[in-house]
Each structure stands twice: as C-alpha cells, then as structure tokens.
Input
Amino acid sequence: MQELRFNCKDYGGRIDSWLLERLQNCSRTYIKKLADGEMLLVNGQVIKPSYKLKPGDNVLLRMPKPISKVPGAENIKIPVLYEDQDILVIDKPKGMVVHPAHGNSSGTLVNALLGYCGEELSDINGVTRPGIVHRIDKDTSGVLVVAKNNTAHKRLSEDLKNRDVERLYVALVYGTIAEDRGKIDAPIGRHPKHRKRMAVNTVNGKQSITYFKVLERFKNATYLQLVLETGRTHQIRVHMSYIGHPVIGDVVYGRKKDIYKTNGQVLHARRLGFTHPIKGVYMEFESPLPKYFERLLLEFR
Output
C-alpha cells in the first residue's frame, strides 16, 4: 500500500479535481473508488470525493500497489449459459477468483475469459478487469454477466446502479430463523479495525438492503433465498452475520472453524435477471445448485 500525503495551501474546490492535477494516469472514477473504500482522508477523517478543500487541510491518499503485469490468457474451461456478440453469461465455479489481484495473478475468471474471448471484451475497468461488470466472491458460485464491448458494459453498469438487475441467491446459514420472510436494512462500510473486512457501519457505511425468504428449516440451520436490492461488498455475508445467522462455512464473518468442510461460504448466485444492454429485451438465467451444496442439504434433511 502506497501512502501519498499532501497539504492544501490555497484551494477551495473539490478534492477529486485537486488530486487529478497532482496524480498522473489517475481518473476521477478511480479516486471515487478509493474514497468509497475509505482510502481518502482529510485531517484524519474519511471524506467524499466532493469534499471542498480548505487552506491548511492535510490530505492522505492510500493507493494499492498496481498489479505488475497484464493478465494472460489461460485455457480454463468455464460454463457458458448464454453468449452473443455483446454479452457472455457464465456460471462461475466455487473457488475461482473473478479478477487478478495480489496473491491471485493466474487461474482467475479474467484469465479464463481472455483465453475464451481473446480481445473481445470491454476495457472500461482497465487491463486487469476486461469485461467484468460485477463480481461475486471467490467461494461464492453462480451466475455472472460479462460485457464484450463498452456500450454493453456502460448500460449494464447503469442498470446495476439503478437497481434494475435482479440478483437472487441461496444460502445455508447457522441457526433456525423464525420469520418466514424479512428485510435487512443496515449500512455497510469498511470495518473500523480490520481494513480488509466489511461491517455494518452506521457512521461511514452506505445503504445496504437484503431481503430473505426461508425455503427450509433444519435443527441447526436454515436454507434461505436472498435478493439484493443493493450490491455492497460481501453484503449477504455481512448482513447474515449481523442478524446472528452467519453463512455456513464463512470463517471471516461467521464461525472461525469450517465444521462442515465446505471450503468457504455456502452461498450461490442462483438467478440473474436483466435487460439486454443492446437488444432491450428482459433476460433471466439460472444456475443449478452445486453438488457440494446439494450434498449438505441432504445431510441436514
């Protein structure tokens, strides 16, 4: 992590505009991402990119070190649910990282996409995330849509922002939930002490809404259907932990020991519905339950 420190001597405008004049190869969007990740501070306080600087302000910008090389194409088979000249809908397997990052430079979905599509992917998110419109965690399986060109990418991103995309998940959580249905409305932001984790954060968190429906109850677990209204990092995992029913296998936000040997959270992106960014027709895709998920359900039954 690189830390850049500045002192504002005489300026009264937005901090993102001010930083653009001082940083090379840096976009306003990237500055916003850093601010959203609580990497931009003024006088020790997390601020928004629209913050108006004052003379004497001390600015701290934390910037992750860039990945040293462009991801390479790899011959990794990925289940394709749908494909045309604009989009690709895939069924991401559990254990696959979506895009390269420190510690995961190969074997990712991006490496597989480059091997499958070559250069036929959008480049809005830069060379390390070609085609990637949205993500799911490494140990979460299920449906993802990928953009093959920038027009499709922009429209899909706008629909996600406007909450016009249906994202339905299923999960197994610890404990028996009494309510048949529920709504969790609790803001999510960076954990105040553990920077790599998220948490319900009423000070700096963003509005986060998850709906759940009980599909089946067991003695020590509940099988849930979950729908995201917002799409914060680790949202379902954080929200379920917050209400006292963490996702089984989630050693970050739940129990520290994976007693059911699931190798990560039992969480699956079951259905994805969206309007095709070019054709304008509504489309819906569903991924079957992974075998490990089905086996665990049978054990509980």
Notes: The helical segments are 15-20, 28-36, 109-117, 150-161, 235-242, 291-300.
